[in-house]
Structure formats: structure tokens, C-alpha cells
L-aspartate dehydrogenase
Amino acid sequence: MTDQNAQNELRVAIAGLGSIGSKIAAALDQGVEGLTLSAIAVRDPAKHQAFLSGLRRPPQILAIDQLGDAADIVVECAPSSQLRAIVEPAVKRGRAAVVVSVGGLLDNFDLVDLARTNGGRILVPTGALIGLDAVNAAVVGTIHSVKMVTRKPIDGLKGAPFIVENNIDIDNLREPLKLFEGSAREAAKGFPANVNVAVALSLAGIGPDRTQMQVWADPTVTRNVHRIEVEADSARFSMGIENIPSENPKTGMITALSVIALLRKQRATLCVGT
Ligand SMILES: NC(=O)C1=CN([C@@H]2O[C@H](COP(=O)(O)OP(=O)(O)OC[C@H]3O[C@@H](n4cnc5c(N)ncnc54)[C@H](O)[C@@H]3O)[C@@H](O)[C@H]2O)C=CC1
Ligand SMILES: O=C([O-])CC(=O)C(=O)O
């Protein structure tokens, strides 16, 4: 790479090197046109030593609130409890923040105003979902309703606050059990690590209070299954995706790929899809 090219590259920082962050870091290190991995933030650097020293161009290790100093785009890939600590300093500096813990945005929505005031941006990838391009288009007209049904294997739901607080035993299920029915906003409170997709869908469309969802614990599935029905004045469409879980059983493998695709688009000459 020439110095000129290096200067033109967008610098990307990643917060959190778990199932999503480590895939994005590896892809950037392998080379994505126009982008360079400049920094990462991890909770425990020693745990990631082997991974980091295997990278061709190891990034700086910084505190989560410093990533915006070293990057044009900060990618949040940590638990939603860390969302504000990662995104606030980045957008205050006018950086773009890619948010995967989308559910966490609902309680921190002032970050969008903060980004606007400071010339920053918040980018939500399609993530483990499908078809947000069609939802984005339909909402330019009128969407009448959005309904989503999520089914996950038992391992993908364990520990969700809704299950713990309601003392629901899902370990011995033999058939599917509907755990929850309500708005995407309420679902995000009860299943913060499970329904980021529903919140992304709601933000693309008619909002977290009007987007309806069901969550099922399903011992008969091995994938994280999401089905969506949209009724709009321009179209009626149904979408479905069956995600193979990553090493984190709550997280579909496609999530990291979706973020990589979003990052590629930031510098691509040919962009396909809205
Ligand atoms: N938008 C979407 O479609 C999807 C979003 N998600 C969400 O994405 C987020 C990340 O998911 P995974 O990578 O599967 O989780 P993970 O648990 O595999 O990784 C999270 C990483 O963040 C690290 N971490 C925790 N506190 C930190 C801190 N203070 N500073 C730096 N790193 C810290 C952890 O050590 C861990 O390595 C979660 O909030 C998850 O719910 C997951 C699936 C789909
Ligand atoms: O990976 C999935 O299928 C969806 C998921 O965990 C989420 O929305 O948080």
C-alpha cells in the first residue's frame, strides 16, 4: 500500500472481540478495499493476545471511550450495557458508530441527537435479519403493520431477563413454547441479547411500539429463526431467515458478515441494495 492510499483509507475501530467483533477484525485485517483496522477495545487484553498477534497488522489497543480518537468508524460489538460508553464519545467527535446491540439504542436514543449535533452518524446493520431494504422503501409510503416471530433453540435463550424474572423453565421443553407477545420495545427489555433484530426492524419501519413480535423457545429448531410479515400501501411481503448460531448460541453467524458488508459499502464504487 502506498502512503497516499493509506491516507485515503477509512480507519475502523472495533469495541469487543467476541463472536461478532473477532470476525470483523479478521476480515479487515485480511483486507477490505478502502478500510483499515486501526484500533480495538477489549475487556481483557490477555485473553485476546493470541488472536491479536496472529493479525498481519495488529491494531492499537485503546480504552472504549478513546476509539473515536483513532478511527473514522467505531463498530460496537460488545454487550448492550457498554453501548453508551462506546458510542457517545465517538459521535461527540463526529465519527460514525456502527451499532450491533441495537436494542440498547432504545434507552439511549438521545445519542442520535448527539450525533446529529456533532456531525456524527449511527449506522445500524441489517445484522441477523433480512430485508430492511424493503422496509426502508415501504416506509417512504405507508406501512400498516409489521409482525415478527422469533424462534430460538433453548441454548439461545438461556438467561434472558424475561425468562429469569418469570421463573420459566425452558430446559425441559419438548415442544415449542410461546414466551412473549408484545411490542418490539417490550421484547428488547425482556430479551436484550435475542431481539436486536426486532429493534432494527422497528427502526427501519414503524417504530418499536407499533412493531409486534412473538418470541418462542423451540426445542425442535437448531437455528435462530425469524419470520416477518409486512403490510404496506406499496406491497405486502413476508421474509424469513434461519440463522446458524455462531460460537455464541444467541448470535447468528450472518451478523458479523452483515457488518462487514456494511463496512465495505462505505467505500465501494458499486453499491447494490438500499
Ligand atoms: N444486530 C443484530 O442482528 C445482532 C446483535 N447482536 C448483539 O451484538 C452484541 C455482540 O454479540 P456477540 O459478539 O455475539 O457477543 P459476545 O458475548 O460473543 O462478545 C461480546 C464481547 O464484548 C466484550 N466486552 C464486554 N465488555 C467490554 C468492554 N467494557 N470493553 C470491551 N469489550 C467488552 C466481551 O469480553 C466479549 O468478548 C450483543 O449485544 C448481541 O446481543 C447479536 C446478534 C445479532
Ligand atoms: O442472531 C440472531 O438470530 C438474532 C439475535 O441474536 C439478536 O437479534 O440479537
Notes: Residues 128, 193-197, 224, 243, 250-252, 255 surround oxaloacetate ion (ligand 2) (CB under 6 Å). The first strand starts at residue 10 and ends at 15. The two ends are 31 Å apart (CA to CA). The chain has two domains: 10-127+254-266, 132-242.
